[in-house]
């Protein structure tokens, strides 16, 4: 029997798991970059402040309202010379309320709201349209200096997901005016035509690919050594 050598796969796996855990913990503690995109903190009379103070578990940090897990539920980037919300904007996809008024935004930022399925109140300047258009929202209200887009509509209901999604997929909302097709349980791939479990592959694909390649490498070298000895 070949002797067991240091660096065999069983040593690598726990080490990698510890590292991943440590990285995860660090990410949870740090304030998301999008909260610091604009200087200062949220104004006292902002809708985001009012929303945040209404619920005791929520806290204001820079431009964000966070829950106890550090998840963004409110974001206020008003009056900060933004032409677009920037590459970190998707960090706020969990937000229920967002204020972007008094910014020189370009009117083509609808796509940046992909995945913002929780968003119920969006405050904008009057010169840009609510993302997804007027039909994507329950109410759009114009005020003197701003407008509010209120309550996302579920477009899957109106457009009929039979036409849009394949046989073994179904339509789910994916932000204002946006939807996507999700394959039914046990289906995956192009047009949801492939059958079989996919979740295990995804798991390994994200977490384990590095670990796995190191393990295979070590396994290979070890086997070669075992043969020559
Ligand atoms: C926007 O910010 C500037 C300073 O950066 C301030 O003078 C101005 O009053 C602010 N406007 C609004 C509407 O808050
Ligand atoms: C919108 O602008 C009006 C002034 O026209 C102001 O009173 C109101 O607070 C603003 N709304 C929000 C949500 O900031
Ligand atoms: C979908 O529409 C039906 C009637 O058209 C309604 O009863 C149902 O509540 C709607 N569902 C959603 C999720 O909007
Ligand atoms: C959808 O699933 C059923 C079995 O549940 C299967 O018979 C059918 O061929 C599938 N459709 C497609 C387009 O893959």
Automatic annotation (TrEMBL):
- Which GO molecular function entries does the Swiss-Prot or TrEMBL record give? xenobiotic transmembrane transporter activity
Per UniProt, residues of the EGF-like domain are 152-193
Residues of the signal sequence? 1-30
Which InterPro entries does this one have? ATRAID, EGF
Its keywords, alphabetically, are: Disulfide bond, EGF-like domain, Membrane, Signal, Transmembrane, Transmembrane helix
Which Cys pairs are S-S linked? Answer: 183-192
> TM spans, by residue?
198-219
* UniProt-listed PROSITE patterns: EGF_1, EGF_2, EGF_3
GO cellular component terms attached to this protein's record: lysosomal membrane; nuclear envelope; perinuclear region of cytoplasm
- Gene Ontology biological process terms in this record: negative regulation of osteoblast proliferation; negative regulation of protein catabolic process; positive regulation of bone mineralization; positive regulation of osteoblast differentiation; regulation of gene expression; xenobiotic transmembrane transport
Q: What is this protein called?
A: All-trans retinoic acid induced differentiation factor
Instruction: Supply the source organism for this entry.
Output: Ailuropoda melanoleuca
What gene does this protein come from? ATRAID
């Amino acid at each position: 029997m070949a002797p067991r050598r240091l660096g065999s796969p069983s040593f690598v796996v726990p080490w990698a798991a510890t590292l991943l855990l440590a990285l995860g913990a660090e990410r949870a503690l740090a304030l998301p970059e999008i909260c610091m995109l604009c200087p200062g903190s949220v104004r006292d009379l902002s809708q985001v402040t009012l929303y945040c103070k209404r619920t005791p578990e929520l806290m204001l940090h820079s431009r964000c309202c966070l829950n106890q897990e550090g998840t963004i539920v409110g974001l206020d980037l008003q009056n900060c010379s933004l032409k677009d919300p920037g590459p970190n904007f998707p960090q706020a996809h969990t937000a229920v309320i967002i204020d972007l008024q008094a910014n020189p935004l370009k009117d083509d930022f609808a796509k940046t709201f992909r995945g913002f399925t929780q968003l119920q109140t969006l405050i904008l300047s009057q010169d840009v349209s609510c993302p997804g258009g007027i039909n994507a929202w329950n109410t759009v209200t114009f005020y003197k200096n701003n407008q509010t887009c209120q309550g996302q509509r579920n477009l899957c209901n109106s457009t009929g997901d039979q036409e849009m999604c394949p046989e073994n997929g179904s339509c789910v909302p994916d932000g204002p005016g946006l939807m996507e097709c999700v394959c039914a349980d046990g289906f995956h791939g192009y047009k949801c035509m492939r059958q079989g479990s996919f979740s295990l592959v995804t798991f390994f694909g994200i977490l384990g690919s590095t670990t796995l390649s190191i393990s295979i490498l070590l396994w290979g070298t070890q086997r070669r050594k075992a043969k020559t000895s």
